Amino acid sequence: MNIHEYQAKELLKTYGVSVPVGGVAYSDQQAARVAEDIGGHRWVVKAQIHAGGRGKAGGVKVVNSIDDLKKAVDAMIGTRLVTHQTGPDGSLVQRVWIEQASAIQKEFYLGFVIDRGTQRITLIASSEGGMDIEEVAREQPEKIIHEVIDPAIGLLDFQCRKVATAIGLKGKRMPQAVKLMKAIYRCMRDRDALQAEINPLALVGDGDGQLMVLDAKFNFDDNALYRQKAVTEMRDLAEEDPKEVEASGHGLNYIALDGNIGCIVNGAGLAMASLDAITLHGGRPANFLDVGGGASPEKVTNACRIVLEDPNVRCILVNIFAGINRCDWIATGLIQACNSLKIQVPLIVRLAGTNVEEGRKILAESGLSFITAENLDDAAAKAVATAQG
What we know:
By secondary structure, this protein is α+β, with helices and mostly antiparallel strands. The protein has three domains: 1-20 and 103-239, D-amino Acid Aminotransferase, Chain A, domain 1, CATH 3.30.470.20; 21-101, ATP-grasp fold, A domain (Dna Ligase, domain 1, 2-Layer Sandwich); 241-388, Succinyl-CoA synthetase domains (Rossmann fold), CATH 3.40.50. Helices cover 36% and strands 25% of the residues. The protein is built from 13 helices and 18 strands.
């Protein structure tokens, strides 16, 4: 689950991290009142969407007067901002964040991510802040610092000092850097975050300056949200695909793609293999939908309904390897879906595992026209041929 930049900053603020003074606005008039309340003569207007690259797309503006601020807000709200992370349709801007403009001396990058290889949180830092870390990795890999954190003892002071020195935060700035890194780490750990990205972390003001988080991004573990009520309350459903929101309400994992072959599987690994097989045969999957374990007939029916909400779907590939699941449940759910939803597109079904013979018998005796397959390769080939036919 993602949250907005302003929510990430408010979260960090509770851990003692310095962030600019600001406020949220939903209109140009409200933005003007926010700017007057926070004071100053120069402000930054930021579109609030769940995507990076806003600056290059016109979603971040620095203004020097209330009139310019109102014009900038009016131009942003209600428009679709297209960045390299939103896709060609972009994301609708429904609110903006107004904050005092900071006198920036230097920008840095700071991030905490879970390294699946080491199964530990890794601190990533760079002296090249304010730009995509992927671009830095590609053009100046020597400027990216990695520090692996032992979960048994947490982030230690010497690790913070090592990173701070590497990116140029020495002398009187060192204690600030150590305190800030440890605070962000605690926030990530306490809130079950998968990623915490600060870009840029800036040195602002005169003299030795003060370290301040000018932009922040968090991604949280969906499986831990049951114990993170405060994080769950930050969820903005308007920023998510309605089909994905509906699927999560039925205990389904759904991700929309841009193809024409609907996919219903059980297990993330089998889902990825199914998508790869479809692509290998020259097809394009329309979605990733995992019904998980213990899929009831009702859950299968809901899965079919959600997949069919995409008008581009020309057929549905159902690929089930039953362990906790049962093939007869899946077969019953498919028949129930066909009858209740009046499904018009072909269904290609591959069943294996628990009660597979019972499941195949139920499909065969249903009187419905299922296209059956013996294995994944056969199912993918048939699905692609059907979609292209």
